[in-house]
């Protein structure tokens, strides 16, 4: 459990940086490069470190020693790589200078000074080239050593997890513990007696003021100083931080940082005081170190859950947690911290006294059982709270994600219990430690992500002080400031997510994080090889996990893109839809390629597969390909956008959705017309809102020629003014279209904000026009139709069969 402390330090450093940014503290990183004369010495030192690490591995280094060696090899690799990179410009300069001298012409002799210069340049170039090659070789060898160390760690972890011992439910297990108990008790007695004798000897020499000072300083740091710093941070945030969100996140991170560092510093002060006063013997050093680690991890556990729940200050709570949930979960924090503290301290005590393997195994069983009980109580309490909220009809926080986590956690708890029952104690302990570490890491990451998002989106906002300065001084658009804040927030949160993935397996021997885990999954079975591709259960599982992870990342990215970034842009709904669709398909394609690559199918194999399927795609999927290409053209050229009013054939409606295969159109009867994209590209489509969103209405009628035309035009102008939907610009107009058959024909036009408003506005104006003309006694209608018969012989119409011979026009009653 003490290996958890190293990633905790990394989290503390990250939190310190974010809190410093939020509080406005300056943070700078100064990178200094050595002079060119030291580059060769730097490569030689890296080579010497690499050789010493290689020899140490050959001598059989322990796990902790291998961690140190891995850090040493990584530093040597980075130093050699940086040296080789820094020498490359010098090599290019040497090549340019030698090229400037030109080749030696055949049959000629160069001047002595040119010969000396050429020789000097060639010697310098050879030295620089040799140093670059040495640096690259050291880089390759260091990577091989790192891979070897990682393989050894993975093999040890696999061997440890797959080792089966006596079950705690069998008499053999307890017989071994009882058999080793007398010797373990003697070791404990010797250990305590040596400590007591050393304490008595130190007190006889004088008062161990260093230890008393360390104890006093430790208590002050752990309690009053921690509380005072928390209050100071809260007052500072209230007085200086802009906006409630930054104050809330800043206080949570400050509480987490102070609550972790101050008890840790107190434990370090106590331990250092004990060492300086020589109060305890040397063999107690292991226990002292364990006490420091246990104090730090326990403080981190209490502070991270305290900052997340904020039981006494619910208005400062970052997470959307109900007060009832915070109150109920608060009681589980200190038991978990005590279990972690006791587990680390007991493990350090067993190592310090040299306890038997049976005693250490019994301690691991107790630790695993206590963690299983705590996890079970936590899950039961969480499930009961969710059930009570569901019964009251309240929305449950977390949704599907929390439900999936609880289901997986219950499955892992069952695996841990089953492992304890059958004798896989290391596996059971690994599972429960992993659950606890994931919970702690997730809580800390959530606080860090919330803080990063609040800082980025608040500082870089169009309404913030910095945002107003950028808009007024630099001339940036306000939307660009908002976009930068959202992008910065996404970049910070992505960095934190990658850091979390890297720290996930670090305490358990997985220094490479997720890559190491996938490597171990792939090593479970060799499988079979088909066409140069290794197909195995481990590879399939790895590919499925990678695909699920890739799709989850795409989904999270699309949620951020649609919900955060695109609303901060100046794009309309159609533009956002186009960007969202392209990003979604590109993301899914990349996730699939990533999954295939993890399965061993490279990009070149995918290209060969696509070329083999191209013929089938050309013939069998021609229509789908045509629609797909047409959809890309629609998204790129945007002749039709979401919300446009279009007419396809005899159907007219609003564009609801545009995908890469088809377009959905909502008709007037609320039905949906799905049109293939190729129809919209290859055929005529009437888009009533493409060039202008305005709509036009037209009214035609006639009045008798005796009516005053100016009076009718005035009536129409007043009706246009009274109609709210009619626009003033362009102004409505009324025209005399024609004078025919004793009537005056009027043709009137007006514009409305949208074509969708034209029909209703036209109906209102016609209704008022009828009433107004009726009040004024003006007849309204159309030109009368008159039928005249030409002169001719009408006698035949009176014959018996005249109906058979008469023209069609004469059969009309009006004609007779």
- Overall spatial form: extended
Q: Structural class, please? A: alpha+beta
Report the sheet with the most strands, covering strand number, pairing sense and barrel closure. Answer: 5 strands, antiparallel
Distance from first to last alpha carbon: 113 Å
Number of strands: 10
Low-confidence stretches: 1-11, 16-35, 511-527, 802-816
Q: Level of helix content?
A: 55-70%
Biggest sheet: strands side by side, in what order? 6-5-4-3-7
Portion in strands = 5-15%
Rg is: 41 Å
Average pLDDT works out at: 81
Q: What is the domain total for the residues? A: 6
In DSSP terms (H or I, runs of 4 or more residues), the helix count works out at 25
Which labels suit this protein?
disordered N terminus; 816 residues; 6 domains; 68% helix; five-stranded antiparallel β-sheet; disordered C terminus; 25 helices; three-stranded antiparallel β-sheet; alpha+beta
Overview in brief:
The protein has helices at about 5-25, 40-60, 65-100, 110-160, 170-205, 210-220, 225-240, 245-275, 285-310, 325-330, 335-355, 355-390, 400-420, 425-460, 465-475, 480-505, 515-520, 535-565, 575-600, 605-620, 620-635, 675-680, 710-720, 760-775, 800-805, and strands at about 530, 535, 645-650, 650-660, 660-665, 670-675, 685, 695-705, 735-740, 745-750.
